[in-house]
Structure formats: structure tokens, C-alpha cells
Amino acid sequence: MAFHALDTTTVLDYVKSRPALNGFFPDGATLIAREVGDGNLNFVFFIENADDPTNSLVVKQALPYLRVIGESWPLTQERVRYETQALRKHNEVAPGLAPEVYDYDDEMSALIMEHLREHEIMRYPMVARKRFPKFADHISTFLANSLFFTSDLYLTGEEKKQYMELFTNEQLRKLQEDFVYTNPYMDSEENNWNPLVDDAVQAVRANAELKMAIAEAKRAYTTHAEALIHADLHTGSIMLNEEDTRVIDPEFAFFGPMGYDVGAVLQNLILNYLSHYGHTPDKEERESYQAHVIEMVRDTWNGFAAKFDALWKENNRGEAVPTKYWDFPGGDEAFAAYRRRYILRLLRDTAHHGGVKFLRRMMGIVSVWDISSIEDPKKRAVAERAAIHIGSRWILEKDSFNAIDDLIAVVQEETADIEI
To answer: Domain segments of the chain: what residues?
Structure first.
């Protein structure tokens, strides 16, 4: 079947034609399609049985261009293949924390998968101050498992190189290199920011130390092939409810620095923290929820660090530092010390990449809904200015951080005097 863009009519016939879905819907079922894609890249359809809405699935189709801009910005459709491969790997190493894949069609650039109908995109309920008590445990498990089991701490050199060949993902990596690490800090036509923080934007662009540090982060992003990273892991790429959490949309996946994924999660939580200066006028209510978000940040990092360390200690089968390497008097203690050193470096990398992502969201092509949905530009500027200051400090001060509370302290210091 030659590629053609699906719509709410043609997608129904398409689903019925897929052998992998035989029996998924009862014979003769009336199917209903809704196009719900609100992202920057793709079409997303919900397909439901009219007589049983719980009998449903999702079709995601990649267009040959960047949807947020249009046909003037061509984009490879291979991204849906990378997403499918990543979802399958995530289901293998972190079972129950990603949607199940039902079918993949290379010619139509289409992925068919589980419909998470009992879940919601995390970003929106967090703006409404909803709490998800199991999130930190779930996401720290996902991060630890997905990063450890695809690294050379677990994989042999041959295994890792084979995986790396499957996840080259050149075009989407190039998008991130440009839109996260380069274009926001120079003149580029797609950049956009609130005029009320123009002075802060120009200060970033003129800060030599900061720009050198951002360049170092970009070098790490392009050269540090540590593990299979999601590479777009924000609260818009997480669906959840009070009992369950799923990571979606890994179409940017490639082998890159582990700290990028961890930094993305923590940075998005802090952006939500900041958004409540615009969304939650009641001080007591705002401070209560912000304290909750800070605990999510702390619990996510601490859970990740502990789980990553435990996985490494119990599964040191890779070729990076094999078990025999530590076979000497005092070797167990040396291995434990090395793991602590490695995880401290991951914390600092988390601050480095997370700090850059703070900045790109405030002065690049795409903000985040938590912030952009603040209608009053003055209130929005409060959150944006704080994000720029926090991001800059995470980058510049990263080598002084020894615990997650050091990153949190920067957030608290930069927001201590905010009055709204």
C-alpha cells in the first residue's frame, strides 16, 4: 500500500485491512475514529468500537514533514520505526511502563498500539494541581531500567553496537541538536519568546561562560552514546492515572547521554512548579502544590539513583567494568565507590542537560503548555524569568552539585522573592 495520509474515514478501512488486528474488533463492529493529535509531528487517531468503547486502539501516522511548521519543513517518516523499536525495547526492559505495540506498517509509516483510555497526559492535570502518588516510583523505575539495560554496563560491546545501528535516527537527532543546543542562543527565525523577558534572553546569548557550557552539553549529546534514551521525555510524553504510568512517544530515541532523559523529567516538573505563579493565585494552595512537586523531583532522582545502583550491582554483565575487573582485595568496596562516582556524574549531567532544556523552552521554537497557557504575559514572565535563571545556574554550577537537594536549592533560591 503506497503511503497516503489517513483521515477519520480512511483510517477505519485501514485498520480493518491489517492482518495483525484480525479478531481485535468483533466481526461487523461499528468503528468510530477521532483525530486527537496535538503534537508537533504526527497524526494520532483513536479507533473505538461504538458498542464497546473499551474495545479500542490508537493509530499513529508519521507525516513527511514537521506538522507544527508544515510541508516547508520535510522530515523523515522513519521516526515511527524508531518509535516502534523503542516501545518494544521499553516493554522488554521496563514492562508495564509503556503502551503495548499491536502492529507496525513501514509503507504507511503507521504504528498501532494500546489505547490508554484510563490515562491522561501528565502536563494538564498537573496544572490543575492533581497529585499522582505513584509517579516518582514508576518513572524512576522506567529511567533506571531503560537506561541501565541498554548501556555497556549491561550489554556486551557487540550487543550495544547492534542496537546503536538500529537507532541512528539522524534527522530527529539533528532537530534536537539545533532546537535545544544551538538555535535558541542565536538569531534563528523560528525562535519565539515573551518580550517581557527579552533582557534575560539577551543576557543568555551574551554570556560567554554559559554559551561555552551549552556547547559542551551539545558535544555530549552528539558524542556520548551511553544508552538508549527516549530523548523527548517530558510531561507531555507521559500518560498516567493514580495507579499506573506509561511513557509514550519515543520517536526521538537514540543512543545518547543518560542525563538527558533524567534532566528532561526533572526540568519539566520544575516548569510545572513555576507555572503555578500564573495558574494558582491562592498562595497557600500554590505553595502546597509546589512543595509536592519538589518532593516529586527529589523522589524521582533518589529512586532512580538507588534503582540504577541496585541493577548494576546485581547485573554487571557488560564489558565496561566486568565483575572480574574487581577481583582483588578491596574490590567490592572499589566497585561500590566507582558506582557512586558514576551516579554523581549522572546527577551533574542531569543538571547540565536539564538546564539547557530550561533555556530552550523559554527562547526557542516550542515552549510548554504549562507556561504558554498563562494568559497574562506579566504573570507568564515571572515563570519564564525564573526558568531562565534556574537553567543558567544548573548549567554553570553543575560541578558543585553533590545531591539532588543542591539542584532543588537553586529552584528555591530563584523563587524565594517572587511576589504575585
So the answer is: 10-114, 120-415
Confidence of residue 38 (pLDDT cuts 50, 70, 90): low
CATH 1.25.40.10 holds for 120-415? no
**Separation of alpha carbons 150 and 315, rounded Å:** 12
CB atoms near residue 131 (< 10 Å)? 12
Is the pTM for the entire model greater than 0.85? yes
Q: How confident is the model at residue 209 (pLDDT cuts 50, 70, 90)?
A: very high
CA dist 20 and 374 (Å) reads 44
Q: What's the pLDDT at 394? A: 99
Total Cβ atoms within 10 A of residue 387: 30
Structural contact between residues 194 and 381, judged by C-beta atoms closer than 8 angstroms = yes
Residue 70, C-alpha cell as written in the block: 508544515
List the beta bridge partners of residue 65: 74
Q: What are the tens digits of pLDDT across the range 229-276?
A: 999 999 999 999 999 999 999 999 999 999 999 999 999 999 999 999
Q: Over the stretch 90-111, which tens digit does the pLDDT of each residue have?
A: 999 999 999 999 999 999 999 9
Write the CA distances from 235 to 126, 248, 270, integer angstroms: 9, 10, 11
27 class by beta-carbon count within 10 Å (0-12 exposed, 13-18 middle, 19+ buried): exposed
User: For residues 22 and 6, is the Cβ–Cβ distance under 8 A?
Assistant: no
Neighbours of 4 (CB within 10 A): 10
Coil vs helix vs strand at 43:
strand
Three-state SS at 99: coil
The amino acid occupying position 407 is L
Q: What architecture (CATH level 2) is domain 10-114?
A: 2-Layer Sandwich (3.30)
Cell of 337: 565507590
Cα–Cα distance, 239 to 242 (Å, whole number):
11
CB 384 within 8 A of CB 296: no
Q: Is 150 helix (H, G, I), strand (E, B) or coil?
A: coil
Q: What is the DSSP letter of 30?
A: P
